[in-house]
Write a structure and sequence with these properties.
- With 285 residues, the chain is of the alpha/beta class.
- It has helices at residues 11-22, 41-44, 58-65, 82-96, 117-130, 147-156, 173-185, 205-216, 227-236, 241-255, 265-270, 277-284; strands at residues 3-5, 30-34, 49-52, 70-73, 100-105, 134-139, 158-161, 194-197, 221-224.
- The chain has a domain at 3-139: NAD(P)-binding Rossmann-like Domain (Rossmann fold), CATH 3.40.50.
- α3 (58-65) crosses α4 (82-96), α4 packs parallel to α5 and α8 packs across α12.
- The protein is globular, with a radius of gyration of 19 Å.
Length: 285
Amino acid sequence: MSVVVTGATGHLGRLVVEELLELGHPAEEITAAGRRTDRLGPLADRGVATTRVDFDDPASLKAAFAGADAVLLVSGSELGRRVEQHRNAIEAAREAGVGHLVYTSAPRATTTSLVLAPEHKATEEILAASGLEHTILRNGWYHENYEQQLHQARETGAVVASIGEGRVASAARRDYAAAAAAVLRAPARHAGAVYELSGDTAWTLDDLAAAVGEALGREVVARNLTPEDHLAALLASGLDEDTARFVVALDGNIRDGELADTSGELAQLIGRPTTPLVEALRALV
């Protein structure tokens, strides 16, 4: 069964290809697609086909998807442009006769107030109208999103946020990759499914500080600021205003419980518990 993975030059896409190989999927039936094919050399060395795709170039998408039984559409990274880019990919998949499309979305994309969700909601609507057989993977937060805080804590001995008593049910990027690989291996079994994927445990800021401290081997404290003080601290650190306000808005979503759900569906898909936070942080160290 032929599988195309977009975004294979990025962290998640590359891990999905590696998971497929570890599951025994024939390398010659996998195509790793990305904008920079020079970065796909390690996968090509393992027998995986590689090809260039650009979400802004529909012809490249259609050529890459031709004859594919399944395509993983890893959501793009260009905020504000993703709806158009995803539409290009979905239309190309339909025109190329793709058998099944798997899309990486956001938690409760159609109902959440999460600031990242609107583009995912619009993409899900485009996919529903396309007529393509599909599966939606609503990926929750990644442990790896806290790499910057890990480095800051090494220098300052603190993790700083404005999440209040909010919790985050994050999981490792490899956990989400394993889920995508499982669906790609048997797409018909997951046709029409919408999976809410998250870690097994929802942690607090104090829990994050403890995990960071354990990973670093030093004492780390949690500094839970008001949104106003958090914004001021981010601006004082040199962050531009748009990015700083975005970070504070995300913390507001966490404070409101938007990333706290522990559905258990990720562990069910991958057939094992999700990776503990401290284990992923140790790997980053």
